[in-house]
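Lab meeting minutes (informal)
Scribe: AK
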Amino acid sequence: MTLWQIIPLAYLAVVTIPLVRIDWRTHRLPNAWVMPGYAAIAIAWIGVWISTGEYPLIPAISAAGYFGFLLIFSYGGGMGMGDVKLAGVLGGAAGLIGAPTAILSPVFAFIFGGLASLVVLMITLLRRKDLPLSQAWAVTKETRIPFGPFMLLGFWVAMALTALFTS
């Protein structure tokens, strides 16, 4: 692992727990916690570019792809802009590690988030069994789940698996 890979990982290691706690309580990912990640990514990309002479194409594609994918979801109201901004940071950091990490990070995020949503849905349906199905399925404040924690979990699981299988 190079210094340029460590910079965004160190940033994410510092902010992961606070972001999870904040997002779980408020359904917000504050810019004050997310946006410095772009500076860490930029420093890392510039470092890679200067040290290797090659533009870090995989991290750029990964960041843009994850960001763009969630941006499309945000138009339907399924994702917040905090999730979209965090996706760019996670995609850029994962891309610095390699293409497998960049692919696995969002895949795991959606798997973990989907499983959590399924659990919440089942519990909600059991609690609202006296209501018509159309009302029982309704999303309310207590049935919404934040996606940021699952994005971060997916990132760290992808990192762990990459480290496990590439060392």
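Next up, CB showed the second protein from the same session:
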Amino acid sequence: MGYPALMTSDLWAIAAAILISAGLLASLPLLIVVGVLVLLVWTTGKYWPRFAFRRLTYSRRLERRRAFIGDLVDYHITVDNDKLLPMIWLDISDAFPLGLHTGGTYRRGVGAEAELDHRITTSLLPYQRVTWRYRIRCRARGYHRIGPARLRSGDMFGITAAEEHVTAVDYLLVYPRIVDLRRMMNLWERPLGVSRGRRLIQDDPSRFVGLRDYLPSDPLKRIDWKATARHSRLESRIFEPAATRYMLIALNARTGDAAWQGSNRRLFERAVTVAASIAEYAQREDYTFGLVSNAVASYSSKWMSVPPGSGSLQLEATLESLAMAGPFWVAELSAVLRAETETLASGATVVLVTALLSRGVIQEAGEIRRRGHRVIVFYAGDGEPRAMAAELPPDIPLFLAGAALSELDELWREDWQDEPEDAPGMSEPGAEPGAEPAL
């Protein structure tokens, strides 16, 4: 028999009754006091676990459910003890994802099972409600789950302890960071010096709107030679953008040559950032755009696909899918592209985002180009893919986006368990019985 079971045995109640009765019969106050104390200890140890969590509520509240990397989100925890019985001590343990950070968290587990443990220890008077207010720093994209929580409490004598599990969970969706697309448009120069444009927007040559001074970046076919002769200076034609502009963003989740190499989380996060930035550019420039990827979505086992659309709602849907993209691939990107580009609008632009420039991707890019679509490749890997890049058709531009994003804060780091000194959290405030403390 363990110590708690021994102390809550009914024999102690019998012993207490004997001591009190003997004290009354012998008129010995000391025996009565001892008997009452024994009865109090026995009653507390036996019935505390049964009533400790009755009419005790635990709740969380997030200021908002969607955020971007780097944002701070207000986070409230409230415990309400709506009964006469006080909580001598209460220990709260809430599961927290690695991608979110706040004060009072400790790392537990290793590898894929690692997570943070958010701990609060307090005591509550009868009919007291206490609220803790924290600020969560969003450190990684994803669909982050907070909870479930475990509550533990015990009696004043340390004889017994009770435990309660709160299964309710809360979710915070963190979008990938968006950067200026021009920052990533570092054009790879071919060894033979083939020149390729840097524009994602295509003009409609049938919709002439005016003239402007010639720029060194203008192709020769834009020069209006009659206007040049008339004004004695080079002038270029200005065309309106194409009436219908369609873009398909294709994200490659594969980061290694062999399947046994697994996924390089750092490179994958970089590729997601590039794809999100291109989506934001497409929305800003009034493209009709969609997204496909061989990455597995966290809510299904199929590859990701966002149907084409335009406007802010389309951008939100695209960023939401990218936020929930897992660093694992379910098929080769070339197979996904073959399936998703069969009904692609004529003249559409296909933007490939990849950290691995494989022969299959290059061959599929060439095939898409032969079907009359424009193809642009953004390379999110380290360095320059010289060997494979040379196999790209000359009319497919390759931008080296990886070098421009190598120092972004959202890239996956293995030292997230190190809590900074300025952890965004607030300690427990003082509280009056029955009132929520104001901070």
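CB comment: The chain has three domains: 3-51, 56-175, 181-202+242-405.
No objections, moving on.
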